[in-house]
From TrEMBL:
It comes from the Bacteria. It is an enzyme of class 2 (transferase). SUPFAM superfamilies: DNA/RNA polymerases (SSF56672), Lesion bypass DNA polymerase (Y-family), little finger domain (SSF100879). It holds the Pfam family IMS_C. It comes from Mucilaginibacter aquatilis. The gene is dinB. It is found in: Cytoplasm. One of its GO terms (biological process) is DNA repair. Mg(2+) binds at residues 15, 111. This is DNA polymerase IV. Its cofactor is Mg(2+). Keywords: Cytoplasm, DNA damage, DNA repair, DNA replication, DNA-binding, DNA-directed DNA polymerase, Magnesium, Metal-binding, Mutator protein, Nucleotidyltransferase, Transferase.
Length: 367
């Protein structure tokens, strides 16, 4: 293993394992070793899984999945109502552990964060050792497991943390990065959502090695502005610093449908699902906003947005769904064919205290 020059950053990505579900299993012995899903109840309209335990994931149950689909896959799954106040407190305790080692902490959500330990507070010097100690402290003090990825930049560290889940630790050093990127499926690349990934595959681009064959000009021509970023990232270049105080401007979700929607009840059903997803994300990041925006894309690819502002911050699924439906009704919905609907929340104002990472928009969408 080659020694990294001093100019390399030492970046750790910590990702809690099935965070909400693990907290519930820790606090409720009757849930341990059983398939549980934290989120909307199946008897309600638009119920969505926020997090599934690993016992449930074995059956294919996963985040953002409709609750009714989860039951089809795993009839024995136990639905648990989320306790976001508890998750936020546990997240605060996790951050306190992080802060023993560095002040350069960029939270992405309640359950994951980037840490820059190039110069760690305790003078340990080894990012691998720092990650090991953090994982041990989280388990000893909070009875929870976390997975860690260690590398020289944020993108590679984030990918690495997912490799040996749960309770994993993976180091990808400078000399291994390019070879690692070449074998990586395109859908694993930062900022590549399902639509972009499918577009790449339709072009015969399936792995990082395939992307690497394109020049920067070709990447930009085919994928627009993100193409330049893809060109760099496939070569292991990611200069984004860990940003402790980055503020969220907006958060939302959208869905492109398998077939165009023409009936109002279909549209409203989809808005219920999207609103639940947005509400889950807002809760996860500890956010509420004063402006709700509806996005509509028609089969002609014409796109419109409509928004409504409130005097007080909102974030619950019911308010988001109701607002989106009212905004939709105010448009001309007669004889239209809709291929995409989206809901976003913004105008968080001075009440925002949580931060998240600078993930491209694809990371916050449902496709």
């Amino acid at each position: 293993m080659s020694t990294a020059p001093a100019s390399y950053r030492k970046i750790i990505h910590i990702d809690m394992d099935a965070f909400y579900a693990s907290v519930e299993q820790r606090d409720n012995p009757e849930y341990r070793n059983k398939p549980i899903a934290v989120g909307g109840m199946p008897e309600g309209r638009g119920g969505v899984v926020a997090t599934a335990s690993y016992e449930a994931r074995k059956f294919g149950v996963k985040s953002a999945m409709p609750s009714k689909k989860a039951i089809q896959l795993c009839p024995d799954v136990i639905f648990v109502r989320p306790r976001f106040n508890v998750y936020k407190e546990v997240s605060r305790q996790i951050r306190e552990i992080f802060s023993r080692y560095t002040d350069l902490i960029e939270p992405l959500s309640l359950d994951e964060a980037y840490l820059d330990v190039t110069e760690d507070k305790l003078g340990i010097g080894s990012a691998i050792e720092v990650a090991t100690q953090i994982k041990q402290a989280i388990f000893k003090e909070l009875q929870l497991t976390a997975s860690a990825g260690v590398s020289i930049n944020k993108f590679v560290a984030k990918i690495a943390s997912d490799i040996n889940k749960p309770n994993g630790l993976k180091f990808i050093g400078p000399s291994s990065i390019e070879a690692f990127m070449e074998q990586l499926p395109v859908e694993k690349f930062f900022g590549v959502g399902k639509v972009t990934a499918q577009k790449m595959k339709n072009m015969g681009l399936h792995t990082g090695a395939d992307l690497k064959q394109l020049t920067e000009e070709e990447m930009t021509k085919r994928f627009g502005k993100p193409g330049k970023f893809y060109y760099q990232i496939v070569r292991g270049i990611d200069d984004r610093p860990v940003q402790p105080h980055r503020e969220t401007k907006s958060m939302g979700a959208e869905d492109t449908f398998a077939y165009d929607l023409t009936a109002l009840d279909e549209m409203e059903t989809e808005l219920d699902k999207i609103a639940q997803t947005v509400a889950n994300r807002l809760d996860k990041y500890g956010l509420k906003g004063r402006t709700v925006t509806l996005k509509v894309k028609y089969s002609s690819f014409k796109q419109i947005t409509r928004n409504q502002s409130f005097t007080q911050p909102v974030g619950d699924a019911g308010t988001l769904a109701q607002t989106a439906k009212q905004l939709l009704a105010a448009t001309d919905i007669n004889d239209v064919r809709i291929r995409l609907l989206g809901i976003s929340v913004s105008n968080f104002g001075p009440l925002v205290t949580k931060t998240r990472g600078d993930e491209p928009t694809d990371q916050l969408k449902l496709f």
